[in-house]
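Contributing new records

If you add data, match the layout below exactly. Sequence lines come first and carry their own label; structure lines follow with theirs. Keep one chain per record. Anything else will be rejected by the validation script.
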Amino acid sequence: MRLAPSPDPLGGIDVWGLKFAGPLGLAAGLDKNVTAVRGHVRMGFSHVEVGTITLKAQPGNEKPRAWREVKLKAVRNRMGFNNKGAEAAARHLSRLRKSRSGRRLIIGVNIGKNRMTSPEAAADDYATCATVLAPYADFLVVNVSSPNTPGLRDLQSTEALRPILIATREAADAAAGRRVPVLVKIAPDLADEDIDAVARLVIELGLEGVEATNTTIRHECGPGGLSGQPLFPRALEVVARLRGDLGPDPIIIGMGGITTVEDARAMLDAGANLLQGYTALIYEGPAWPGRLNAALTRPSNEVSTRTRPAR
């Protein structure tokens, strides 16, 4: 079953009433403080996901905390959600949204909990972040899958995740005065039955979708999560499984090792509606996102003819 988005005659993709110029956007982790959104769009990304942003500013883990694994065409990081906090991010987003060109930018906001916030208080962290940031976001992403904040991945269990997603949804819509798409970002290391459980929860709560996948800890390179080409086979499996669980309507943003046009098409064919990348930008250079989006939206390319459901 092919569920790739069908480009319109101008090459755009409609999701949530937004017109994406192409499927590929920038994944969270690079623009942590909302300082380079315009530049990344000019490089050819159709959208930018900023963050991960936590309620309070935090310095992240001690340095060094990021490494190139060149032989693998991968990056390993243990950043630890280093960012200046939700209020600082909101100020940058507010300035962007004051101009007509800034309002046209498609910006996702990835939120997480502070390192010192207990699991019992996590829902409050996410909800308050949503209150501060949702008014400026085209979509929100609940990040419970980074391996670099102790205990964060435990929040992927449905018992822990349900109150976080409910609180985030309610806070986002109340703050923005509109329906803000909310997605949850999951790890590639989840067991298949846990992926199925998250999908059921997404359907139960009426969330807009899932991002798959974050970095993996199943490697022998050292501490931290690994991104890049080694992740691609498992990311593809997770996206395909999610699509089978979710059915045709919820949006899946697929990521994890996408480098070539063939990789991107395979991820779209597996069931992703949109794509994101980060590591390939490091190895392929600044022309990579524009080149990939151009190839994926060119009318002569072989793409799915599936019609996107009305929103």
